Amino acid sequence: MSAPKQSRSWSLGPLGARRLLDLIALGIVPATAAGVLAFTHSGRPYWGMVVAVLIFVANQLVSRTRYPLHLMPIARFATCVLSPLLGALLAWAVALSTGMGSLGDSLIPAVVGALPLAAFGCWIRGRFDMSVGVRIAVIGDPEVADGLSKEIAMARVHGYRVLGWVSVNGRSPAELATEVPYLGPIEDLRRIVPAHQIELLVHAQGPSGEVSRLEIFEAVGAGCLDLPVKLIEASQFYEELLGHVPVGQINAAWFQYLMHPRYRRTPTFTKRAFDLAIGGVALVFAAPLIALFAVIIKLSDGGPVFYRQRRVGEGGCEFEMIKLRSMRPDAQASGAQWSSRDDHRVLPVGRLMRKLHVDELPQLWNVLRGEMTLVGPRPEQPQLVSELERRFPHYERRSLVKPGITGWAQVRCGYAGTSEGSAWKLCHDLYYVKHRSLLADLMIILETALALGHRAQFELDPPGEQFIVMNEAAVEALST
């Protein structure tokens, strides 16, 4: 006998409230203000309407980015204030194409009035996220529930809270030591959702042999289709909220996106032009700083200024990466190894260079030569790559793209330093491989500037394996 249907009362909920707030505070209000100002200065009502509509359209285009802007403060603020500028450019193009170029003068006060409103709307949205939370229940693996709860806190992602987990295979909470509360079996989902006011269900695939995905979806559909609750798989939720891929929640089928007819990667020519344009300018400005530290290195111990090291690049091809030497000349005498926070091999001037990341600047030459790119996974030494490929699933997929000077993993994780740190960065590198674009590269470059300004190389320690939601084999590898 099927469960009785409940009347669905209208309720906006935190997820809907976020979308409505974005529409009003970031779209309608700045666009309306710009339209009124354009009308006031031009004296033509239809022109004010054109400006308002184009700025609103620009906001909708910019705000639909698929990237986790809540993890990218500079990029998030830039996208908020970008829509008035982009809308004004569209309006200016319309004015020129229709022979009404004189109306372009009214765009300056329109933009000046819309920008502070857009910035204020961005601030309001941030405050809303901190005060209103989406209530989450994890279906399946309780370890994923624990890890997700801890990582949300670690990443300082406001507005989401894991209330508990729902079992799918009859395991009782007494059998498991979990910090997240147990809510009940999946058979009681229809009672659990309204009782705890759950707004989002996250399905986490457990160890092999558990209940299949189809059975989970059938159980959720039977009990919750008429309830105001949403369902998402853990791997997708991690990508959208935390900006990385939990490798324990994916398999080889996850990479089918590369062959999907709708998948569009950045054209090689466009990416190369981007690297040459920005990399060339950056190298010109960096040259005096490189020369200054080159002299200091030479005077410190008389050794070579530059350090060349074999690294693995795109497609597994090796190349020589160039850096300003920050260690003693015999630093690698005992073989390839990671550096550490208090590495005795680092020169005094090397510590300063690493803190300022000046030692990485000569890699701009590798970018101009086409061996590296500005944004991409960091290249590793061949000996370390061989070990990491044996220990962690899908590690070799990083080489599908060209290595970079900075990258999403660099911004979010800092320096690896250990096998565990490399696994943590792998989760972020796979995210970049899937979502890479010129827009993403621009955002990451902006966030890199913020990271350089407030974080030293080893300031972010890699989390434990409870934060790297991996399969059993990977977790076992981390502990050996």
Describe this structure in words.
The structure is a single chain. The chain is of the alpha/beta class and 480 residues long. The protein folds into three domains: 13-130, no CATH class; 133-242, NAD(P)-binding Rossmann-like Domain (Rossmann fold, 3-Layer(aba) Sandwich), CATH 3.40.50.720; 268-330 and 342-479, no CATH class. 51% of the residues lie in helices and 10% in strands. The chain has 16 helices and nine strands. The strands form three sheets. A five-stranded parallel sheet has the order 3-2-1-4-5. The chain has a two-stranded antiparallel sheet with strand order 6-7. A two-stranded parallel sheet has the order 8-9. Helix 5 (142-154) links the parallel strand 1 and strand 2. It is flat and about 70 Å long. The two termini are 51 Å apart. Residues 1-10 and 469-480 have low confidence and may be disordered.
Quick structural summary:
The chain has 16 helices and 9 strands. The chain is an alpha/beta fold and 480 residues long.
Strand order of the main beta sheet, please? 3-2-1-4-5
> Into which percentage range does the β-strand content fall?
5-15%
Total helical elements: 16
Q: Percentage of helical residues?
A: 40-55%
Overall geometry comes to flat
Report the radius of gyration as a whole number of Å. 26 Å
**Sheet bearing the most strands, described?**
5 strands, parallel
Tell me the number of structural domains.
Answer: 3
Distance between the termini: 51 Å
Order of helices and strands: HHHHEHEEHEHEHHEEHHEHEHHHH
Strand segment count: 9
Low-confidence stretches: 1-10, 469-480
Structural class: alpha/beta
Q: Return the average pLDDT rounded to an integer.
A: 84
